[in-house]
Amino acid sequence: MNDPVRVVLCDDHRIVTDGLRELLSTASDVAVVGVASGGEEALYLLAHLGADVLITDLDMPAMDGAALATEAKRRHEGLRVLVLSMHDEPATVRRLMELGVDGYLLKSAGRDELLLAVRAVHGGKRHFSSELLEAMMRPDAFKPAAHASLKELSEREVEVLAALAEGLGNKEIGERLFISPRTVDTHRTNLMRKLEVHNVAGLVRIAIQAGLVK
Q1: Out of 1.20.200.10, 1.10.10.10, 3.30.70.360, 3.30.9.10, which CATH number does the structure's domain 148-209 have?
Q2: What are 55-74's pLDDT values in tens digits?
Q3: Considering Cα of 100, then 101, then 103, then 108, what sign does the dihedral take?
């Protein structure tokens, strides 16, 4: 009998990871070997548990799912990453595909689709929910959509927003724009307040929708 697929879960909401663990426990060929509430904890578990698949949320404080996926795959050759999120914007999904994510499911997915996705990515395939693929095939799927609140941003804030969407850190943005990392952090805080989001992942989605970055 083959060994079960070893899965690590990462989501900052305990009720989500408890639910995922319960759903996956019904399959004899899948085993949840670790549960993390954030990106750094997930990286620690991956370094010690020999997981095959990481299932992660997208919106998390400190380190979002995109950053976690990138770093986890850099550190662990052969690791497969499945993002489970409530966001269905085609531009967001495309960006994650470009980062090398192996699958993307909406949190509305049921048990059968979740297990199908885990087995598919473990087997070397990519799995994206059918609703997402249909949305991505629409002619206007990647047409930039201006965000109403962008008009409230200063020119400098727009520059910082675009740089954040490129994945640059405070130090790198500061060097590019000739400002201090502390000033970059202030701009980021102001951006979150003005755009009514709570983490960098939210800022990135708005930047992509507004056409600030491809």
Answers
A1: 1.10.10.10
A2: 999 888 888 898 899 999 99
A3: negative
